[in-house]
Amino acid sequence: MESSLKRKRNSAYITPRSHRSRRNPLDVAFSQGQRRNNSRIRFSSPQGPSESRQRPDNARETGGDNRSFQISTDDDLDQVIVAIDVKDSATVGCAYYSAEEEKLYLLGDIRSAGAETIDSLILQTKPTVLLTSTRVDHLNTKVRQAGLENESPLYLPYRTDVRPSQEFSYAGAKSKMAALDLSSMHEQRVQFLVPHNGMTSTEQLDAEDVGFTLQEGRLLHMSSAVDMENTVTVGCAGAVLTYLQRRRATEPSLVDRSSEAFRVKSAEMFGLKGTMFINGTTLLSLQIIQSESHPDMFNQGPGKKSSFSKEGLSVYGIFHHFAHTPQGRNRLRQDFLRPSVDIDVISERHDFISIFLRPDNCDSLSTISKSLKHVKNLRPVMVNLRKGVSTGSAKITGFKTTVWATLLAFAFYGIDICDALREVAGGDTLALRAKALRIFDQAQLYRVGRMIQEIVDIDSSEEQSRTVVKPGLNEELDRMKDSYDGLNSLLKQVAVEIAATIPENFDIDVNVIYFPQLGFNIAIPLNERGEAAFDGSDSGWELIFVTENRAYFKDFRMREMDETLGDIYGLICEKEIEIVYELAQRVLVFEDILIEASDVCGELDR
Fold this sequence. Notes:
By secondary structure, this protein is an alpha+beta fold. The protein has 3 domains: 2-69 and 477-569, MutS, DNA mismatch repair protein, Chain A, domain 3; 79-270, MutS, connector domain (Nucleotidyltransferase, domain 5, 2-Layer Sandwich); 326-474 and 581-605, MutS, DNA mismatch repair protein, Chain A, domain 3. It contains 24 helices and 16 strands. The protein has helices at residues 25-30, 67-77, 115-125, 137-149, 170-178, 184-189, 215-222, 231-250, 252-255, 280-285, 315-319, 326-337, 343-356, 362-372, 378-387, 403-422, 431-439, 442-455, 458-464, 475-485, 487-500, 556-565, 568-588, 591-605; strands at 2-8, 11-16, 80-87, 91-98, 103-110, 129-133, 159-163, 194-195, 212-213, 266-270, 291-292, 310-311, 509-515, 519-525, 542-546, 550-554.
């Protein structure tokens, strides 16, 4: 926000920067004003300095996250860390971690498996990082041969990391899995204590546990979800957990938020029972799935999103356009990779299709299809919400991609999907419909949407590309915003007073500018020698900093406004952060319900 005045003989030119209500202060400070005419004062579009279009690094935004943090967060959510090991005469074990789901998956040990099994596991898990032990010669030999046959570098869609065999140890993996905070709710009800196998001195004894440990109890609880007899797979899980711990400790962007980064919320087994095994050669020969890499080499390689590649001419490429949601397209892809051979599953899918092909269900089908187009995958959304990121994707696409807009749209269209499912004729026998109606709680969805709609100002948020709180919710915030909106007239008045103190022989522009965190400053253009055209030394001006075109000073007026008004935009952002944080905590109460509803949308969409 700035107000400027050009000092000339017998005339004054004041050029305030017009602004919209409650815009980003940088837009307020440097947006062009509309031209008006007056006998002594003329408002015009100034010849702004080159730095006026730049965004200072100290500009604050609601949510407290800069763009580099958002990019890092988005990349973290795309991570899929896969570990594969081979032991005991071709027994293959595999475990992988999905950062988007915050879940650790373990595959049962596959005995007498070969290279085709390993290639198939890599194809189906789509890793960004592949951890292998030195015992897996197939992958290492394959990469070396590909590098020798091609003169150009080999660009893999994942990064291969060969780790020492000790990281795949079964004993070490059991300790790491027991240390996971997965059974906290269970342990609040029942605690399984056994004597500790180590020696404990009398000074270290606790009256409640007296040397007892919960490790065996946690392992017992873990074995209810994971088959601990799969020693090779459990060792792979230990390698994945070691890698996650190493990432949290070594990457600077994850140190400050290590408690949330790469968190493991749950662990479960996944198997190939009931599905048809298809190797990669068969998939390519039959053109079941055939992805084409991005023509730009900088958009290839590990960690890139699926949007940087496209599905080629394949069977999956024909059908995936009919899936409207990201989770639906992912489930559809898994169905093509692992076709079911279970007759009950196949019959259930046929019944579902036949019910919705009935003419009397045409309206319900149309409503569900249109609503699914507006539904996004809420798993990464909830992860961002827990981490305090309210601006969603790092791409500059406005408020429509933010966390709050996604949740608001999901609540609204989720209710429509639920109503359409209730109106389906003959759907009482469909298990998926019954499951969806059980999970979709319209009252809870309405409550989530109502909370967001009452607090978040969608129009202002779309304009400013940040989360803005609606007026009327907090009196203190409203007063600060009213004061901020009135700065334009105040700066114009101060610019007039300062211009009156400058000798008339100086033909210069006088600007009074407010910068977030830097406060109020007097901007004076530079002369041909690169010095300030007027330094106000006789008036007690203090030089603060110099840019390419202007020098910025403070006098007693600027310091008085700094003390009286303070960093007003920063105070507004801090207050909005508090309100948005409270909203996030209230929404996170419904996290499990929202994620389950999002997953059901993927099942309906495929």
